[in-house]
């Protein structure tokens, strides 16, 4: 086996998923936000909600397209770099990805067209229904991906036949208790990402003195939603930690920086883990708290990494630090959300420029939390591709060479950088332009495959302006 090819393949998968996860995380929350805006516009008739909907729909469309493009590449990699994984787990992972296509992609592809071209063609209630279906489609997509990944984390409902893992209980696979912890955790992360991006945009406009009414709506709704969801997310995150504690003890020990069995166990707050000596340097620990977090007990015995074979140890440094970064981002967001909600209730939020700057600068936090959460889960699962069943080194395409892996890595990096640089720049330009109403409302006869069909409506508007 070419170890360099293995390393490059892992770097390629990590880099592509790091790019990709930005956009689904953003669009899942944004689709739900669009549904709320459309419902508010229908129920209240306020023009501000319609203006916000039209503004965020353009950003959603751009981010959604980037997410689709980057997601397609993920499937290619399974065949190119990880053919053994594809062959051995295909009977399980293949159908799960197909379910995503037949549920999530079908809803998104069908009803997203209605959002773009159908406002003047369908009844208002059906337009709202279409918005909700797009949001439901993004949620289905997250669900099936989390089912797939959760099976790789904690395999259930399978049997080994002729060297291939085949499903024996789809109910156990789809409704695994692990799925119903990890899926809500991911969904809440997406909603919080949308909430903070919306709030940060509102803060930015208030700092610049633009779109005051709409900016206040974005700021208050985003922060109030975050204030409700963040405590729930912290609780669900604890439940996710419980599944790691029970099913992946090596990962849990690495996250905790625990090298030796302890009873009761302390909680390492900060340290520099050293695998060579199986110890922590400059550690700051809190006695007993490790047992409380791990087992909700004051005297439980918590297992250290040295209790497991060394070849089953995950890399300790990455999950140890990424977990703490994730939690730190969550606590900062919780603080901002609570302060913002208080200032909103006392009607002082728009005048506090220091808080507006803090909110504006907070927009990277949910993305960083999502990244570090995934790094903790995926790096902490090593050395397993399918936990306890298939090692990552054995999952790689056997004949893959370092040269081939390096070429594909460079090509992917260049293409991603080119496409996403322009995509992100365009989203920035949309935000910089702001809530500009459309100059021309598409005529009923305008259709997507005939762009010039808009010309007739434009002539009518110009004629009316001449009168």
List unreliable stretches of 5+ residues: 438-444, 453-467
The percentage of residues in β strands lies in 5-15%
| Chain oligomer state | single chain
Main sheet makeup? 2 strands, antiparallel
Number of domains: 1
Choose one word for the global shape.
Answer: globular
Give the CA-CA distance, first to last residue: 77 Å
Task: Indicate the percent of residues in helices.
Answer: over 70%
Judged by helices, strands and strand pairing, the structural class is: mainly alpha
Strand order of the largest sheet: 1-2
Number of strands: 6
Task: Compile the SSE list and pairings.
Elements: H1 3-44, H2 47-80, H3 83-117, H4 124-153, E1 158-161, E2 164-167, H5 170-174, H6 179-208, H7 212-247, H8 249-256, E3 267-274, E4 279-286, H9 289-295, H10 317-345, H11 353-361, H12 364-381, E5 384-386, E6 390-391, H13 392-395, H14 402-433, H15 454-466
Antiparallel strand pairs: 1-2, 3-4, 5-6
